Amino acid sequence: MTEAETGTRRPRTDARRNRTRILEVAEEFFAEAGITGSLDALAKRAGVGAGTLYRHFPNRDALLAALLLARNEELEVRREALRQETDSVAALEQWLEALGEWVTAFDGLPEPLRAALSQESSPLAITCQGFITTTDEFLAAAQRAGSARPWVRGRDLFLAALATAWVRGAAMSDEASAQALRDMVRSGWATPRPGDTPAT
């Protein structure tokens, strides 16, 4: 069936080029200014009009979702590798560490990801739900092994990863803050192992 018969046509070359250019510039722009940087300023830096930017990405969440897509693929590769890990606690810990790296891709990213959890229309919502499902998978394996507390939920661990990422950029935090929060979260979800040193 031809494009004429289906009533569709391939995006024009210049449209594809503009989209690629916007994403390339947005990667640098958000790394410098954080995700709250002006989209109009981003469009200007990319050499396109604001209308062109919004035709490709109707809102900030849509642009962020597109930028995170490549990182999603990297995270999915790590997920597949961790599925081969025989130690369920180690697998969950490494998955949460990978999530922590993912949510710090840009300054300010944790907030729109948190908001997306209650906004099904957000393009970020599907991404978040997918990673919560994966967190549930690793958590369930640890729970079956008796290594994670039965009342813990994957959604809560995902939110904890967002909270830890937020703390890293908080004004009152220091170099030890994020690790301290990760340790506190772990002490909450993990059951003590033989030989573990009790908290004092």
UniProtKB/TrEMBL annotation:
Ranges where the HTH tetR-type domain occurs: 16-75
Any one GO molecular function term: transcription cis-regulatory region binding
Coiled coil: 65-92
A Pfam family the protein falls into: TetR_C_43
SUPFAM superfamilies listed in its UniProt record: Homeodomain-like (SSF46689)
Keyword annotations of the record: Coiled coil, DNA-binding, Transcription, Transcription regulation
UniProt superkingdom: Bacteria
Location of the DNA-binding region in this protein: 38-57
Keyword Coiled coil: yes
PANTHER family tied to this protein: HTH-TYPE TRANSCRIPTIONAL REGULATOR BETI, HTH-TYPE TRANSCRIPTIONAL REGULATOR RUTR
Protein name: TetR family transcriptional regulator
